[in-house]
């Protein structure tokens, strides 16, 4: 009878450990492991990059505190989490750098699972990194992901499902709120308004980026 661990691995949540040539050791300096930080935000127009990158990097640095330093940063702005890493500009460059014979980092750290992954994307990314001897560190695991740990395997399943659920829940809440405000307050909050406009000089636009 297959074990729970085998079932989780076969489900694709975490890639099984593969035999084959790998770098035997990381180049650990006096400062520890070298990390590449990856972050993401959905929109470039309605979010502040410095703020979004700042809190994600702070969480990542807390995760690796005392274990090493971030030596490279890859950040995607204006990319949906549903896009595969190969289809995100910064993430694609990060994967390419990880596959270099002599990469500039030993591990990748993210600030939050949901910012980096959606659904079962993690298993594909981890398989590529493991093949080239690069670790993945998450705040949710308080360190590197252990592909042989049943706890980590189950956690990756849960986080992947939660990431997908968060998108659907946010969409449902926004649409439900718009519908309620339209019915109760008479406010129209989306799409083409069912009435005309009356032009008036309102002065400078309060948000120059949207002027």
**Average pLDDT, all residues:** 77
Number of helices: 6
State the shape.
elongated
CA radius of gyration is 21 Å
CATH class group of the domain at 27-157? Alpha Beta
Biggest sheet strand line-up = 2-1-3-4-5
Secondary-structure element pattern, one letter each: HEHEHEHHEEH
Structural class: alpha/beta
Percent range of helical residues = 25-40%
Percentage of residues in DSSP E strands:
5-15%
> What is the CATH superfamily label of the domain at 27-157?
Resolvase, N-terminal catalytic domain
CATH architecture descriptor text of the domain at 27-157 = 3-Layer(aba) Sandwich
In terms of per-residue confidence, which ranges show pLDDT below 50 for 5 or more consecutive residues? 1-5, 7-11, 15-26
What report would you give on this structure?
The protein is an alpha/beta fold. It has a domain of 131 residues: 3-Layer(aba) Sandwich (Rossmann fold). Helices cover 39% and strands 14% of the residues. It is built from six helices and five strands, in the order αβαβαβααββα. Strands 2-1-3-4-5 form a five-stranded mixed beta sheet, with helices on both faces. A hairpin with a 4-residue loop joins β4 and β5. α1 crosses α6.
Provide a compact summary of the structure.
The chain is built from 6 helices and 5 strands. By secondary structure, the protein is of the alpha/beta class. The chain has a domain at 27-157: Resolvase, N-terminal catalytic domain (Rossmann fold).
